[in-house]
Design a protein that fits this description.
Blueprint lengths: L8 H13 L2 H8 L3 H15 L4 E4 L2 E4 L1 H25 L7 E7 L1 H18 L3 E7 L13 E5 L8 E8 L1 E6 L11 H5 L3 E4 L7 H9 L5 E5 L2 H10 L4 E4 H4 L5 E3 L9 E7 L7 H16 L1 H4 L4 H9 L2
Parallel strand pairs: 3-4, 3-5, 8-9
Antiparallel strand pairs: 1-2, 5-12, 6-12, 7-10, 7-11
Helix pairs in contact: 1-2, 1-4, 2-3, 5-10
Length: about 325
């Protein structure tokens, strides 16, 4: 059997990729190599080790006992490399370099982009890359450096601060509700509704719609809060929205006061190894300060707060 010198990181990455994909073409694509190269490297590695690493079945590649050992080693090495990278990233002397920020489209469009512009004016040496998506990325492996997330239970592996409580209320298209006063419950029940899709099923506001609105009245579902606001504005139906989105859109009108039961926490998060990195710390401090100033708007103070926010330089 080969000694440790016969293995390098590329060998380990290949075994790990094949184990995760259970197919050689998919693993090769993930590593950025062609299929024939991956096939030759895997064959050479198995020959050097003197044992097969995978059993080949019609349903895919399955690790052998030897393969499980190598795949486990690959996982440990990857974790060690990520940990060292994080620690080194935290040693920078001044706020400079790139910060990858993971957030949702609605937060980016309605809250964060103007803040990033002001931050860049203050700290031009810090570059920002935004990763948009609702699933949480792995900050431990540097998928992102900072996460701006809506969650009531941030991961215990991350550190950060709660920046605000996001209020939700029921909104409709203003053109559909021209009269003064709030519409009656019966009038709302007769309307078409829009709501978030299965990816948000755990949210209390989504459960409320599912439990109180007849299925036949739910005309539209979408796995994006920003898409939900667009749907309400397009007249697809009435639906619950974060107040910082609904109040900032003149074409929308609140149909009911914010419901405290639907509030959600807005968190600024990073990995413990990165929190003292100057570029991370300065961005987190700036966002916390700016979001604190926007808190009345985020927490549902209403149209007056929205106009004040829009008028700010």
């Amino acid at each position: 059997m080969a000694d440790a010198r016969s293995l390098d990181w590329n060998d380990l990455r290949l075994v790990k990729a094949v184990a995760e994909a259970r197919a050689l073409p998919a693993a090769a694509a993930a590593l950025g190599v062609n299929h024939s190269t991956a096939f030759r490297r895997l064959g050479a590695l198995e020959a050097a080790l003197g044992a097969p690493l995978f059993e080949r079945h019609r349903t895919g590649y399955t690790l052998t006992a030897t393969g499980e050992e190598i795949a486990a080693l690959a996982g440990r090495v990857e974790d060690d490399i990520a940990a060292v990278t994080r620690r080194l990233a935290g040693l920078a002397a001044s706020p400079a370099g790139e910060v990858r920020v993971a957030t949702a489209d609605s937060l980016l469009v309605h809250l964060l982009t103007p803040l990033f512009a002001r931050f860049r004016e203050r700290c031009p040496e810090v570059r920002i890359e935004v990763v948009v998506g609702n699933p949480a990325l792995n900050l431990s492996k540097r998928d992102a450096d900072v996460a701006v997330r809506v969650t009531d239970a941030p991961p215990e592996t991350l550190v950060g601060r709660r920046a605000a409580r996001i209020a939700w209320a029921l909104y409709g298209r203003a053109a559909d509700f021209p009269g003064p006063g709030a519409p009656t419950i019966d009038a709302l029940a007769a309307r078409s509704w829009v709501t978030l899709g299965d990816g948000f099923a755990a949210r209390r506001v989504v459960r409320f719609v599912e439990e109180t609105v007849p299925a036949a009245r739910i005309a539209f579902r979408v796995d994006s809060v920003l898409g939900l606001a667009e749907a309400v504005e397009a007249g697809l139906g009435i639906g619950p929205l974060p107040c910082f989105i609904g109040d900032a859109r003149p074409a929308l009108v609140r149909l009911a006061p914010p419901d405290p039961a639907f509030t959600a926490d807005l968190w600024l998060l990073t990995h413990p190894d990165l929190r003292q990195a100057p570029r991370i710390r300065v961005l987190l401090d700036f966002l916390a300060e700016e979001l604190a100033r926007l808190r009345p708007f985020i927490e549902g103070a209403g149209e007056e707060a929205a106009r004040a926010v829009a008028a700010r330089p």
